[in-house]
Amino acid sequence: MNMHLNNILFLDIETVPQYENFDKADDAYQKLWEEKAKWMLKDEEDTPASVFDRAGIYAEFGKIVCISVGIINDRGPKRELRIKSFADDDEEKILKQFATMLDKHFSGDEHLLCGHNGKEFDFPYIARRMLIHGIPLPRILDISGKKPWEVKHLDTMHMWKFGDFKNFTSLKLLAHVFGLPTPKDDIDGSQVAGVYYEEQNLQRIVTYCEKDVVTLVQVFLKLSQLPVLTEEELAQG
């Protein structure tokens, strides 16, 4: 794999349940969620409705409301991080725009995708939602039949594990471990659905997602033993 920084697309997604709450879902969806939620019911008072906030993490029950991407441009006199977001209430619109961008700019053998837990969450979630909407998979997401070393995906969580698969390490924890600054004004990931449905504040979610992309880039650079981006370099983008 060509690891030139310009060839890596860093990304993060934000997802929400397809419905604001369990009661608003159609009957078929409710019955399928009840089956899925059985293993989540830990306490006597737990119900499929009470754990419905977790529906957004499953591609079958959730939808994407924001995809933020970043690329490090280091071909000029200074490095700069360029960030772009695809966000809309219409998930199909987001996915079509994102697919077009990948097909146009990230379809070569030299290109790579990078996320934190991207191999387990972001990349397959995007691919599954594209299939649901009948959107042809961009080459970089279509890994069917490929050997592991042919898949052009990087994952900072896997980079940190060094082959150890016993536990999950959050991006926030890695940023702290490496002494990287993290925004104090962010919403928590568990609050995204509330911000989307109750506040109807998609821009707040976009800001949160873009900040995660910045942290992802900085963690990747640390894991790659490369200099992190300075405040000036971040501002250039």
Quick overview:
The protein has 237 residues and is of the alpha/beta class. It has helices spanning 27-37, 91-105, 122-132, 156-161, 171-177, 192-199, 202-223, 231-236; strands at 8-17, 62-73, 80-87, 112-115, 153-155. The protein has a single domain (5-18, 61-236), classed as Nucleotidyltransferase, domain 5 (2-Layer Sandwich), CATH 3.30.420.
Explain this structure.
The structure is a single chain. The protein has 237 residues and is of the alpha/beta class. It is globular. Strand 4 (112-115), helix 3 (122-132) and strand 5 (153-155) form a beta-alpha-beta unit. A five-stranded mixed beta sheet has the order 3-2-1-4-5, sandwiched between helices. It has one domain: Nucleotidyltransferase, domain 5, CATH 3.30.420. The protein is 36% helix and 16% strand. The two termini are 26 Å apart. Helix 5 crosses helix 7. It has helices spanning 27-37, 91-105, 122-132, 156-161, 171-177, 192-199, 202-223, 231-236; strands at residues 8-17, 62-73, 80-87, 112-115, 153-155. The longest helix has 22 residues, at 202-223.
